[in-house]
Amino acid sequence: MFARFSFIAVLALLASGCANTSPTLGSKNISYGDTKAVETVTNEFGSTDLQMIAESMTRSLAQSGIMQGRPVVQVYDVKNKTSEYIDTREITTSIKTQLMKSGVARFASDNTAMQSQVDQLKLQNQSGLYKKATVAKTGNMVAAKYRLEGSISSIVKRSSDYKDVFYKFSLQLIDVESGLAEWMDEKEIRKTTER
Amino acid sequence: MRFKIIAVAALALLAGCATPPPPEPGSAASKVVAMGPLKNIVVGAMRVARENGFMTVNVQLSNTLNSNKTFYYRFAWLGPEGFPVADEEVWKSMTMYGAQTSFIQAIAPTAKAVDFRLEIKTP
């Protein structure tokens, strides 16, 4: 009898000893990393490049003084002139987010959001589904004072020993009425791989 | 006599092990947060200005080696209460040529920033 109890107690102890006391589950080969770390896995366009470009452009634009009075800006897509696939919309989204957070600009519906905006206005005004007092009136959308557009290009050079990639990101703020470029900046990034 | 010698040696050792006094608040040194000892990179003069409401910092750095040196840095921006006023910045990599003196410039992400810290790490 005593031996049986001892055996069960030992088994229970062993089982509790093996219990996972850490708030993790799964393979030890997978881990979460620092999203702000310098990423040098390959020398293609990467997260650090995207973050550095967005940060540099946002700070430069915010500090330029052109955004006095929180003007309305319309963001256009960044033209990708590199040979790589780059989701340039993510660059503009990051720039837009950071400018919004710094409180220096307001943003008009951009190309992709415009259709949804028009659809919603039509739905509210033409469907007869909504209370009159709550319907958003047409003709009150705020037009952009400036448009923000840019491009990214690259020069890639290879030799037997090196691969060198040079990225140049340019961004400009253009006054819609006058067509004048009121602010412009660029960010250059060089990444070299030694084989 | 022997005891005295041991006591003096122990005192000397203790003095050698004593941590240096913390940098004075507001000094340039108090703005630098080094992750481990800075190998061959010296942080020099810092200039702070406010342009169009945004804090701008310019920091002088020198490479004491005669060969190229890469290091990593980023700024943290603080409000009047000493708390961060923006998300963490992305770490940047910078390479300095042998014996070069250079500057890094940074602009605060928001006009609320009144103070900063330079985080720096040498590999």
What does it look like?
The complex is a heterodimer of chains A (195) and B (123). Chain A is an alpha/beta fold. Chain A is 33% helix and 27% strand. Chain A has helices at residues 2-18, 47-63, 88-102, 111-126, and strands spanning 72-80, 106-107, 146-158, 162-175, 181-194. Helices cover 13% and strands 43% of the residues of chain B. Chain B contains 1 helix and 7 strands, in the order H-E-E-E-E-E-E-E. In chain B, the strands form 2 sheets. In chain B, strands 1-7-4-5 form a 4-stranded mixed beta sheet, with no helix packed on it. A 3-stranded antiparallel beta sheet of chain B has the order 2-3-6, with no helix packed on it. At the A-B interface, helix 2 and helix 3 of A face loops of B.
Quick structural overview:
With 195 residues, chain A is α/β, with parallel strands linked by helices. Chain A contains 4 helices and 5 strands, in the order H-H-E-H-E-H-E-E-E. Chain A is 33% helix and 27% strand.
Average pLDDT across residues of chain B? 87
Which structural class should the secondary elements of chain B be placed in? Answer: mainly beta
Taking the sheet with the most strands of chain A, its summary is: 5 strands, mixed
Oligomeric status of the shown chains?
heterodimer
Helix count, DSSP H or I runs of 4 or more residues of chain A = 4
Strand order of the largest sheet of chain A: 2-1-3-4-5
DSSP helix fraction of chain A: 25-40%
Question: What gross morphology of chain A would you assign?
Answer: flat
Strand segment tally of chain B? 7
Q: Quick one: overall form of chain B?
A: globular
Report helical residue fraction of chain B: 10-25%
Integer average pLDDT of chain A: 90
What proportion strand of chain B? 35-45%
Task: Please indicate the percent range of residues of chain A in DSSP E strands (runs of 2 or more).
Answer: 25-35%
Low-confidence stretches of chain A: none
